[in-house]
């Protein structure tokens, strides 16, 4: 079986991807060689591919999460052995390949109850949900939460996790079909359709008060609507721009006393202790059923189609690459 690596020659469209045979390399001190069984895709990959978040240099390998089996252990690695099932997410970027050399401290051992596909589809999103719900704005029993794209990858995990904390969840979805999915994730209320008056409907559902916190991964002109859906002294959190860049937000939108946060899971994960804390929390949550639905699987060699499908917005859940 030939190992492959996907190189991004320059920022741009999917034509910038190049499939290459991957040479065999051995792990160095403190490293392991991991054979990937499943690679997760995220909108962050699209931002990297397009150069919205540029890579330090090109050609480059993108991808920020995967799961597999330890194939080889380098010197000074005491707590992992060949055959261990592990996963990782976050920096450094470079998951689009059959095998990977990675620092041993960046991988997290998987319990038997969590499959490689589940881990690859849910680890980064679960870590992001932990950061958002427990660290950015602590969601607790009685909190009122607005989650955009509630049937999507991150949205579905946010809905399930927030509900496990006894929060009341209002989700937005684009179609009735996605509404059925979000309802199955236990969302309390759903606002359906791209043309829906989100602010008015949130006000109606909260007796005119607004939500305590709102999570917006849509971007574009949605952020102002999100802010207007938040109660006085509540928080809006911008976590992505799937529909396009966010225009400048007038400071007047923060009255009276609303706050706006723009956290980064990649920045969070740069600190190894915070990274491992969030990863363990996410894997524990997976064991309770807080996972992302796998919407589609593509061969690693078919990465262009996977990105096209992800950008289309049709997929309700995560898209995996299989080496």
Task: Explain what you see.
- With 323 residues, the chain is of the alpha/beta class.
- The chain folds into 2 domains: 4-110 and 293-322, Quinone Oxidoreductase, Chain A, domain 1, CATH 3.90.180; 129-264, NAD(P)-binding Rossmann-like Domain (Rossmann fold, 3-Layer(aba) Sandwich), CATH 3.40.50.
- The protein contains 9 helices and 15 strands.
- The strands form 3 sheets. Strands 3, 4, 5, 6, 7, 14 and 15 form a 7-stranded mixed sheet that branches. A 6-stranded parallel sheet has the order 10-9-8-11-12-13, sandwiched between helices. Strands 1-2 form a two-stranded antiparallel sheet.
- Helix 2 packs across helix 3 (153-164) and helix 2 (116-136) packs across helix 8.
- Give me the Rg, rounded: 20 Å
Summed up, the helix count is: 9
Helix content: 25-40%
CATH superfamily of the largest domain: Medium-chain alcohol dehydrogenases, catalytic domain
Shape: globular
Short description:
This protein is of the alpha/beta class. The protein has helices at residues 43-50, 116-136, 153-164, 176-184, 198-205, 222-228, 265-269, 272-287, 303-312; strands at residues 4-8, 17-21, 31-40, 65-73, 85-89, 99-103, 108-109, 144-147, 168-173, 189-192, 211-216, 230-238, 259-261, 294-299, 318-322.
């Amino acid at each position: 079986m030939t190992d492959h690596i996907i190189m991004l020659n320059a920022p741009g469209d999917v034509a910038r991807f190049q499939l290459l045979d991957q040479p065999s390399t051995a792990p160095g001190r403190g490293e392991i060689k991991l054979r990937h069984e499943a690679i997760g895709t995220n909108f962050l990959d699209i931002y990297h591919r397009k150069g919205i978040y540029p890579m330090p240099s090109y050609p480059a390998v993108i991808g920020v999460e995967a799961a597999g089996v330890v194939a080889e252990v380098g010197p000074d690695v005491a707590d992992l052995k060949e055959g261990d099932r592990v996963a990782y997410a976050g920096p450094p970027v470079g998951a689009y390949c059959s095998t990977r050399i990675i620092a041993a401290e960046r991988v997290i051992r998987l319990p038997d109850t969590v499959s490689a596909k589940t881990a690859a589809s849910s680890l980064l999103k679960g870590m992001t949900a932990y950061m958002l719900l427990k660290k950015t704005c602590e969601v607790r029993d009685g909190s009122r939460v607005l989650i955009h794209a509630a049937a999507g990858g991150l949205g579905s995990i946010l809905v399930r996790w927030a509900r496990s904390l006894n929060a009341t969840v209002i989700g937005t979805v684009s179609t009735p079909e996605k509404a059925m999915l979000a309802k199955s994730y236990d969302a309390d209320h759903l606002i359906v359709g791209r043309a829906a008056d989100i602010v008015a409907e949130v006000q109606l559902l909260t007796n005119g008060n607004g939500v305590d916190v709102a999570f917006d991964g849509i971007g574009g002109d949605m952020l102002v609507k999100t802010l207007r859906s938040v109660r006085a002294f509540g928080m809006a959190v911008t976590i992505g721009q799937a529909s396009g860049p966010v225009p400048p937000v007038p400071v007047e939108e923060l009255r009276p006393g609303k706050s706006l946060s723009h956290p980064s899971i990649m920045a969070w994960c740069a600190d190894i202790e915070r990274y491992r804390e969030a990863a363990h929390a996410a894997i524990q949550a997976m064991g309770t059923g807080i996972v992302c639905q796998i919407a589609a699987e593509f061969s690693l060699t078919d990465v262009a189609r996977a990105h096209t499908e992800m950008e289309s917005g049709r997929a309700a859940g995560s898209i995996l690459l299989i080496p």
